[in-house]
Design brief:
393 residues, alpha+beta, Chitinase A, domain 3, 2 domains, 4-stranded antiparallel sheet, 3-stranded antiparallel sheet, 16 helices, 7 strands, 12% strand
């Protein structure tokens, strides 16, 4: 798996990562529990379903060509010849899901409904080298997220059968892999994938890994412990991150319609003087002063025109912009020019500074805690590495 991602991957580095994942995952399950760890992974899927799907996908990616060679030897040159769909009546589906079209507050089956679903066979199959079996509606239901359950409750028979076929394909992948490598090896790989998932979840809870902007109760707790003095100190070290526009000196030309606005914009693009065109064409009260708005300050909740001004680069004439209004309303158009921009900094005591600083400090504390935990786990662990024969790979 490591070499599939990076052909230069080394055995010792891969082993180190496996050991660290095993230790972190074990600690994570003890501290947070599987429900918390799986909350951000493949939304709506049960944890075991996610791991099983990843296991089958990984094996298929690594050994799919060899599996295909075996399948081509089958009478139908594929799994389809071994599949036997089963008819399920509408009455049987009603016994599981209730009346068709009924309004429901949830998409969960109770124990009686699930037991009934387990009796409804959607597909029978016979894998190569033995392994006859069947896929029931209950099997399909257990492996769905919310969107999948919506399709099941809508009686989408094509979806039911397609999901049953997916499960048979996954069973073939696992059957082939167990015959090739042994059941223990496949179980080891599944545990590795579970460890990786839980270790990544541990990173997410600490504000690290592949989703640093996701929610985390741990980060919320650490952020709440950050003091005003820590925020002020962090702000002084990261002040440049809080540069803001304090005020701009600007002009504008207000035109009654799009055609007029396009004509004036073309004249400006040709080098015409902004103030002169404002006096000649603007319908705003500022026309007499060449469209001068004076200094527009960034304070409170700026109006629409102020927001437009703040969004423009200094010294560049904006494109014509229609004033916000309904699609059928007669709305004027604006062209603005920022002559000078004055920058400043957000106040150290502002809510935005406090939020950004406290989250950054919380992530730093969480990362420090996690690194300390990792080091402590490795220091205390009893690790025995067996000597095994290594092939040319």
């Amino acid at each position: 798996m490591a070499r599939a991602a990076d052909p230069a991957a080394r055995r010792d580095a891969t082993l180190d990562a496996l050991i660290a994942d095993r230790l972190l995952a074990t600690a994570a399950r003890k501290r947070f529990g599987e429900a918390v760890l799986s909350a951000g992974q493949r939304v709506g899927f049960a944890r075991d379903v996610s791991i099983d799907d990843q296991l089958a996908s990984t094996l298929r990616t690594l050994y799919g060509s060899e599996m295909e060679q075996e399948l081509r030897q089958l009478p139908g040159a594929g799994l389809d010849s071994l599949l036997h769909p089963q008819a399920v009546s509408g009455a049987a589906l009603d016994a599981v899901f209730g009346k068709s079209g009924a309004l429901r507050l949830d998409l969960d089956l109770d124990s009686a409904q699930l037991a009934q679903a387990d009796t409804l066979v959607l597909l029978r199959f016979a894998l190569p080298h033995g392994g006859d079996g069947s896929i029931t509606l209950g099997d399909v239901y257990r492996r769905q997220n919310v969107q999948g359950r919506v399709a099941l409750f809508a009686r989408e028979r094509g979806f039911m059968l397609q999901q049953a076929r997916v499960q048979v394909a996954a069973r073939y992948v696992l059957d082939w892999s167990r015959r090739r490598f042994g059941a223990d090896a496949v179980a080891d790989l599944r545990r590795v994938l579970a460890d990786q998932g839980d270790a990544q979840a541990m990173l997410r809870l600490h504000g690290l890994g592949d989703d640093q902007h996701g929610g985390s109760r741990l980060l919320d707790q650490l952020a709440s412990q950050v003091s005003p003095a820590q925020v002020r100190d962090w702000y002084q070290r990261h002040r440049e991150d809080f540069v803001r526009i304090e005020r701009v000196r600007a002009r504008h030309i207000r035109l009654p319609d799009e055609a007029s606005a396009r004509a004036v914009a073309a004249a400006l693009a040709g080098g015409a003087d902004f103030a002169t065109l404002a006096r000649r064409h603007s319908v705003a009260p500022s026309a007499a002063s060449g469209g001068a708005l004076g200094w527009v300050r960034h304070e409170g909740r700026p109006g629409w025109l102020a927001q437009l001004v703040f969004a423009q680069a200094e010294g560049q004439v904006s494109a014509p912009v229609r004033t916000p209004a309904g699609p059928a309303a007669q709305a004027p158009w604006e062209i603005v020019l920022v002559e000078q921009r004055v920058l400043g900094y957000q106040e150290a005591g502002s809510e935005s500074v406090r939020y950004v600083a406290s989250r950054a400090l919380a992530r730093a504390m969480a990362a420090e805690q996690l690194m300390a935990l990792r080091a402590d786990l490795l220091r205390k662990a009893r690790i025995e590495i067996a000597t095994v024969a290594q092939g040319p790979a």
